[in-house]
Amino acid sequence: MGIFQHAWQAFRRAGAPAALPLAVAVTAALLIGTSDRALAQGAVKSVHKDWQIRCDTPPGAKAEQCALIQSVTAEDRANIGLTVIVLKTADQKSKLMRVVAPLGVLLPSGLGLKIDNADVGRAGFVRCLPNGCIAEVVMDDDLIKKLRSGKTSTFIIFQTPEEGIGFPMSLAGFGEGYDKLP
């Protein structure tokens, strides 16, 4: 079982369904839809090579929520985008990776992840919003280490069982940005 799958299963065992409404609300607050692409909104607090820390106060929240974010388009389809959001939970006990894929993604196939061409695993989608479908995992130390030391990651979605779409994403600045997350 890949790390991505293991982290996803740990997220589900940890009672994620109870925490999911808050997670979805924060994602909705951090994202807006533009064409077929989900773009992060909120104030840019800092830039770490290819990653940004953006902060916003979700509706009903008492404090500002910050996330490490990068948005990319598919290699061969400039009109299809994907956004990766890394954040710490309000209690600072967990680190989440939330990936917003475009609508029309084949949900049962899940979201694949490779780091430097090594398969990390798959995560299932947890919910679709008007601006995209969300896959989310609790990040364990091993996944964070791989993201820190890797050069590129590739997120893979499917629009049909045979058609995978890869989204290459630079990991330059991930470690630095992750360390600066409040």
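Second entry:
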Amino acid sequence: MSKADIYWSGASGKKYGYWIHAIDTAFRKIAGNSIFAKQTESGDWVPIYIGQTRNFDLGLTDDREKMACARQNGATHVHTHFSSPDEPIRRAEVEDLVAQWKPVCNSRP
């Protein structure tokens, strides 16, 4: 796979490579993490929701309500990281990124 489009840093200092796609992009059957984001006028990305899925082909996150929250809060793109099929590894990455960025839709119940 080619070099990532963007690198997101977690609270641990670890950097994770993600690829940027339009929010309605269709994906193949693979596990991974996603960051729903919007771009500021200055070109920076703001994460709205960070999640994981066991199968991108079935949806960008295992939590449909959070995906709706992301769209309602202005997410226009999804950043994807095709990751381990092991859910604890994907969740650890999500937790690291959420701790750093505190996205609005991750803080809602």
